[in-house]
C-alpha cells in the first residue's frame, strides 16, 4: 500500500538539545530504544535549538549535514529522538532519500516486534494505524491522485480518500475486537472482586526490572531482558501471601517519557489492570542516575490513566549495582511499609517484599476465638481448608475451642454462606 524506501538496519540518529524542559529527550534513552529495535547506529548527530523549525524540525544547514551523513554512511534510515510532524518527515525523506522515523514511530516499531498475544498485536496495529492515518499522503506521491481509465471509474474518490476509508474501516474492526477483549477482562476482574481477591499491579519505567521481579514472586517464566519494552502483553499470576491468602499479580507494559497518546489509547484494555488494582508496586531502577525523573514520568502516565489515587509501594530494584545497600523495608510514621530495597536479578529481598505486601494487605485480617458445638463439626473441615487455624483444643463439654486468623473477605464469605452465621460462634471476651 505504501511506496517507501527499502529499510535496512543502518541508522543515523538525530538528537536536538532544547532549552525548554517540555521538549527535552534523553540521548542515552534513544540509544537503548535503537538497540532494542535491532538497529545499528552508524552515526549520531546532535544540535541545540530553542525551538523546532517548521520545515525540517532542525535548521536547513543541519538537515543538509544529516543528508550528507546518510550518503557517506550508506544509511537506510534516519531516526529522530523527537516527535515529527507528517510534513517534517516528508521534507526530510525527500532531502535524505531514505526512510525517516521519529521517536513515536520507533517505539511503535519495537512494540510491533514484541507483540506476542492476539490482543497485543491488535493494540499495536491500532496504534500504528492511528499514527499512519496522518501520514497517508506521502505514500502516494508517485501516483495520479485521481483514479481513472477502464475498470477504474467509480465513486470518484481520490486514491487518498480510498486509503483513508480503508483505514477507518480497519480501525473500526480492531476497536470492536478490543472491546470484546476488554469485556472478557472486565468479567475476570468482576469475578476476582466477588471472590475479594486483591490485585497487585507492577508499574514502572521501561527496563526497571518488572518482569524479573514478577518471575521471582510467581516462579513464572515470562520473557525478561535488559532492553526497553521487553514486556508488552499483560500477564496475570496467582501468588500466596502469608495471612492474606491468594492475590493476583499483574505484569504490565513499561512506561516511557512522552509516551505517545496513540499508545496510551490503544493499550487502554491492558492499562485497565493498573486502574483496577488494589496496590501498585512501583518498580524503580535505583542504579539509574535519573531514577527520580523516571518516577515522575511513571506518575504522570498514572495520572493520565486515572490511576494516581491507587496506593503505591515503591520497590527500589537493582541494589546489587549499588555499594553498601542491603535489602530492607522502609516504614512511614504510622508503621506502614512504603519502600522495599531488593535485587530482583539476584533474588535478594524477596522475603522482605512478601512481608511488606502482607503488612500492606493484611489490614483486612481478622482474629477471633470460636466455640463450635459438636453438632457443627463439619465447620472444622471448612476452617482447615482455609488454613486459618492458629490454635485449637476441646473443652469438657466436647465443644471445639479454636482461634482463627483470616482475611476479612473469607470471614464475610463464611458469614454469608453458612446457614448459621460464623459470628454466632464467637467467644465474647
TrEMBL record:
Major location (coarse): cytoplasm
Record-level GO cellular component terms: cytoplasm
Cofactor needs: Mg(2+)
Gene Ontology MF term list: GTP binding; GTPase activity; guanosine tetraphosphate binding; metal ion binding; ribosome binding
Subcellular location: Cytoplasm
Residues that, per the record, bind Mg(2+): 211, 231
Domain of life of the organism encoding this protein: Bacteria
Entries under NCBIfam families matching the protein: GTP_HflX, PRK11058.1
Membership in a protein family: Belongs to the TRAFAC class OBG-HflX-like GTPase superfamily. HflX GTPase family.
Record function comment: GTPase that associates with the 50S ribosomal subunit and may have a role during protein synthesis or ribosome biogenesis.
Protein name: GTPase HflX
Organism: Alteromonas sediminis
Amino acid at each position: 500500500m505504501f511506496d517507501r524506501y527499502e529499510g535496512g538496519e543502518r541508522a543515523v540518529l538525530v538528537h536536538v538539545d532544547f532549552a525548554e524542559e517540555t521538549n527535552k529527550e534523553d540521548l542515552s534513552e534513544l540509544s537503548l530504544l535503537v538497540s532494542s529495535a535491532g538497529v545499528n547506529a552508524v552515526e549520531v548527530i546532535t544540535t541545540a535549538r530553542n525551538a523546532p523549525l517548521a520545515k525540517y524540525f532542525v535548521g536547513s544547514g543541519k538537515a543538509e549535514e544529516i543528508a550528507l551523513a546518510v550518503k557517506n554512511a550508506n544509511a537506510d534510515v534516519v531516526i529522530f529522538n523527537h516527535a515529527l510532524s507528517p510534513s517534517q518527515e516528508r521534507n526530510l525523506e525527500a532531502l535524505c532519500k531514505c526512510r525517516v522515523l521519529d521517536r513515536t514511530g520507533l517505539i511503535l516499531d519495537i512494540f510491533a516486534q514484541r507483540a506476542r498475544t492476539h490482543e497485543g498485536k491488535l493494540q499495536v496495529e491500532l496504534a500504528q494505524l492511528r499514527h499512519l492515518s496522518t501520514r497517508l499522503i506521502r505514500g502516494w506521491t508517485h501516483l495520479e491522485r485521481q483514479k481513472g481509465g477502464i475498470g477504474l471509474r467509480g465513486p470518484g474518490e481520490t486514491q487518498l480518500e480510498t486509503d483513508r476509508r480503508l483505514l477507518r474501516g480497519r480501525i473500526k474492526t480492531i476497536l470492536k475486537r478490543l472491546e470484546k477483549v476488554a469485556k472478557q477482562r472486565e468479567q475476570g476482574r468482576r469475578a476476582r472482586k466477588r471472590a475479594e481477591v486483591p490485585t497487585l499491579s507492577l508499574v514502572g519505567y521501561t527496563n526497571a526490572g518488572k518482569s524479573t521481579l514478577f518471575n521471582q514472586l510467581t516462579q513464572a517464566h515470562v520473557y525478561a531482558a535488559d532492553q526497553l519494552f521487553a514486556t508488552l502483553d499483560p500477564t496475570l499470576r496467582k501468588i500466596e501471601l502469608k495471612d492474606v491468602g491468594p492475590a493476583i499479580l499483574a505484569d504490565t507494559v513499561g512506561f516511557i517519557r512522552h509516551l505517545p497518546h496513540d499508545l496510551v489509547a490503544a493499550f487502554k484494555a491492558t492499562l485497565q489492570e493498573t486502574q483496577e488494582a488494589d496496590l501498585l508496586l512501583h518498580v524503580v531502577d535505583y542504579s539509574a542516575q535519573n531514577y527520580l525523573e523516571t518516577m515522575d514520568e511513571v506518575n504522570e502516565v498514572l495520572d493520565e490513566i486515572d490511576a494516581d489515587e491507587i496506593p503505591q509501594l515503591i520497590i527500589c530494584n537493582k541494589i546489587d549495582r549499588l555499594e553498601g545497600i542491603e535489602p530492607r523495608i522502609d516504614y512511614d510514621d504510622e508503621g506502614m511499609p512504603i519502600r522495599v530495597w531488593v535485587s530482583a536479578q539476584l533474588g535478594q529481598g524477596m522475603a522482605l517484599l512478601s512481608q511488606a505486601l502482607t503488612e500492606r494487605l493484611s489490614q483486612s485480617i481478622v482474629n477471633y476465638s470460636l466455640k463450635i458445638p459438636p453438632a457443627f463439626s463439619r465447620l472444622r473441615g471448612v476452617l482447615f481448608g482455609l488454613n486459618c487455624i492458629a490454635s485449637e483444643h476441646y473443652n469438657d463439654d466436647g465443644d471445639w475451642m479454636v482461634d482463627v486468623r483470616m482475611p476479612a473477605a473469607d470471614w464475610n464469605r463464611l458469614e454469608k454462606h453458612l446457614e448459621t452465621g460464623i459470628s454466632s460462634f464467637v467467644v465474647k471476651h
